[in-house]
Every structure is written in structure tokens, then in C-alpha cells.
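Student: Please help interpret what follows.
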Amino acid sequence: MAIFALLIATLLSFFSYELITYYQRKTTIQATEFNLQLVSHIIEQDLLNLSSLAMTSSTNSSTNSMLADYFGSPEASAKDAVNVFYSMQEDFQINPSHGYVRRLIVTDNHGKFLQLDNAVSVSTPLTVHNIGTIPGLDGETVEKWDQVIRDPLSPSAGIPFILPIYGEGASRIGTVYLLANTSVITDKLRGYSLPDHSQLLLTLGEHHYRLVGDQVIPVTTPLKPVAYTADKPVGTQTSLSMIAMDDGERQISVSYPVRSGVTLSQTIPGEQFAPKANIWILIMLGVCFLVIVSSGIIMIYLTRIISLPVEKLKKRIDKIAQGNFLLDRNIEWNSELGDIGRGINRLSQDILTLMDNQLADEKQKQELEYRMLQSQINPHFLYNTLNSIKWMATIQNATGIVEMTTSLSRMLRSMAKDSRRLVPLQDELSLLNDYFLIQKYRYGGTLNMEQQIEDEELLTGLIPRFTLQPLVENAIFHGIEPKGKGQITVTVRKEGFNNIRITVEDNGIGMSREQITAILSGPAPGAKGMIENIGLRSVNERLHLTFGEPYGLSIESEPGTYTLMTVVIPFQQKE
């Protein structure tokens, strides 16, 4: 267990190291991207302002119109030059970024020029003789922020931005030369937090520079960035790459475009992404030590709390398997395993109770078998007695006693020996005839029953046993007997596609709607005849259970006139 815990601790330490490295690298790249984006937007605004200042002289504006007149007219006077200069100076002063302009020159490339200089005291005066030393004033110049150059007329360096000047008819009449101080970029980076061994790089066109304080140092070693795909930047404009530094170390470079041709980048060394190796090793060793100590303590604790109690429970179960069902209070601890121990004790007691009950049931079974053997004599005695009565009545020519005895014998034999749940309707009607014959002799000539069968095939349909007898019994006892005499009509006919409709109608005293509801929904009234505990409600429930809710018993009645009981069952010949 200790080795397993040590292995788990080592794996967790390794994965934790990798996870921390991943999230630290991701966080560092996102923070660098955010910083570059913030600084680049500020620098971009100044570059846009300086570009706008240069365009004021080159595009359609009042200054451009005055320059076109001044450069295009051979008769232009010194006053015209002064007016153009004042217009340029006014545009220069209102520009928010004019402080970053080292010098602004407009020339017709043929000897005429005007200049605004922010550092006249440290600059060589511009003349027709030295204007040719300023690069980019030829006729092939286009708009660019593509490199850092030394100013030929001063010891400072700057970034040139050159635009052609167009006059009427879109013809080129001159050139605008704006030299921006490198501080337009370095001033925004003074508060920039740069980690150790990281570098800020500036890309102007195809030229690369390293930013160190206020200095813009050219990178002499060619940079060969390789796409970095292990992580993805947040912004769509940000790009990640791997570059080799002067000392051969490969670092991640996060680049963000300031504007077209101008990109600001920061390199991130690998040591920024991972915690110190020696510290991490100490932490991992400490974690392994704690895991080993903790696993030892846990093993001792689990042995006392789980292993030993489980061993005792196992021994107790073995004793129960061997037939020892005595209680053992030593396994009923105050814990979850104690609950299991109490359950095992209850189980042993339940087994004892079950064995006792089984012995009692076995004795009772033997007693019932003995009584059943004795009771087998009773039905034969009863049938023989009824048979003797029948033959004595026959000898004495008492036909009524013969018929009643025969019907009673058939009914008793059907009740005792017929175990079928469903019987053919013909058998049910035969049982009903036997029952009615007995009742007819009981009531004399005051009672009559008629059966109407629509189709003899219907008699083969199955019906639950003792379904019609309770209906006729109810009609006799509760309908006709209080009236004194009456007629019962039993009708069997087909209904619908595959149903049998059986009606039992009497012309007795009838019943009210409340009585019908009480009969079908209240307690089942016991029959007063020979079949007890089988009432109308019981008949209805047995029909529902046998065939389903659509089938069953319904009652219609009118007090003093009639009662009609209807049974609807499906016509089926097999259960």
C-alpha cells in the first residue's frame, strides 16, 4: 500500500508540475499579449497623428494649395514662402503628436524647400547644398515607416515618413519628408514590465530592432521565426512564434501589429513558465514523505477499524454455517460494521425462528393430512345417504323428493369436485336449473322460471362458476318472496360483434336507485341460500377480474314493477 501511495504521489507531482507549467505559460502569454496590445494602441495613435500631419501638406488642404502655388509658380515671392511656412507651422502646432517630430521638410525636388525643426540648436542648417544628403527625397518615394536612420544633419536617429505632393491634374510637384524621433515608440515603453532575460523587439518593414530603454538597437543576427502552435493567442491579430536568441536559446515571441509594417514583439524565456526545479524537487520529496507517513497511519487505523472487525464477522458467519445460532454481542460495535454485526445476530435468530416455524408447519401438515384422510369418508357417506333417500322415495312414489335429492346431489358434487374457474354456459345453466328446482319445491307453485336461448352455440361460451345462481337467488329472496309469487326470465343472446348478454328479470317488488348503488359498491351481502358469501357485488368483481372493466353486472329496476340484472361477457370458448 505504501508503494502504491508513493507511486500515486509521484504521478500527481509529475502531472501537477506539467499542469502548473502549462497554465503558467498560458497566463504569461496572455498577459504579454495584453500588455503589447495596450502599448501598441497608444503608439499607433501617435503614428496616425504624424501620418496625418504629413498628409496635410500632400493632400487637398489649404497648406497643400499654397504649396502647389508656391512650387508651381516661377514668380513666387518670399512672401508666398512665408505664408506657406506659417500655414505649415499652424498645422504643426495643432497636431497632438508634433513633439515627436524631429524635422518636417517639404521640397519641390528642384531647389525650393521649407523646414520645421524641433531642435534647431543641435542641427546643421538645411541648405540647397546639403539637402541632397537626406535620403528619400527622390521621385520614387512612397509612404513608409520601414526603418530607423541617422539624421544627416544632427546626431539623433529617427524614423522617416515620406509622401509625394500632388498638384492640379494629379501631377507630382514635390515631396514631404517627416522624420519622427524614436521616442515616439520608446516613451510608451518606459513603464513596461519586462521579465528577466526577455527582450522587446520592434519590426519596421524588413528591419528588426531591439528596444533597450530609450535606445533602438539594430538586430544584426537574422531572425528566423518558426510558428508556435502549442498555445493559441486570445486575439486574432496576435501571433506566436519561436525565435533563436544570440546565445542560442529558443524563446517564444509574442507579436502584435501596431500598424501596417510596424510590429511590436516580446520574447519570453522558458524559465518564466516553470517553477524552479530544485524547489519543486524538495516539494515532491516532502509530499512523498508525507504520503508514506500518512499511508502508514491509515493502514494501522484501517486494520483496527475494518480488518479486525471484518475478520470477526467472517468467523461469526462460519459458526452460523456450522449450526451455531447463539447470539454474539461482541460483534455489535458502535459503527457501520456494528450494524452488520447486529444484522448477523438478527439473521441467526430469524433462522432459529424459521426452523421452529418449519417444524410447527410440518406437524400441522401431518395433522391436516390425517384429518383429510378422515374427511374423505364424509362425502361418500353424504352421497350414499342421498342416494338411499332417492331410492326410498322412488319406491314410495314420492317424485318430488327424488327430484330434489337428485338436484341437491348434483349441486354438492359440482361444488366439491369441479375445480374449474370457467365453465361452459350450458353447465352454469344446468347448475341453475338444479338450484331452481329445489327452490320451486320450497315455494310450491308460487315460483316459475323461464329460459330463452337465442342461439345454442352461445351455450359453449365460458363463464365464471356460480355467476347466475346468485342473481336468481337475489330475485327469489328479495324480489318475489316479499310479493308472494312471481316469474323469473333468463335470456341469453348475442350482443355486438363477440359478446354474450345474459339477463335475469323478475316481476317482484323491485328496488330503488340507492339500493342498487349499495348492492354494487357497498359490502357484499351474503346470500341466504345454500351458497354463502357470494353476492351480487362479488359477481360483478369476479367478472371484472376475469374479463376486464368493459364487462360486468348492471342492474335496472322500478320499485313495485320489475328488476332486470344484466351480465355482459365476451364469447370465448377457451380460457
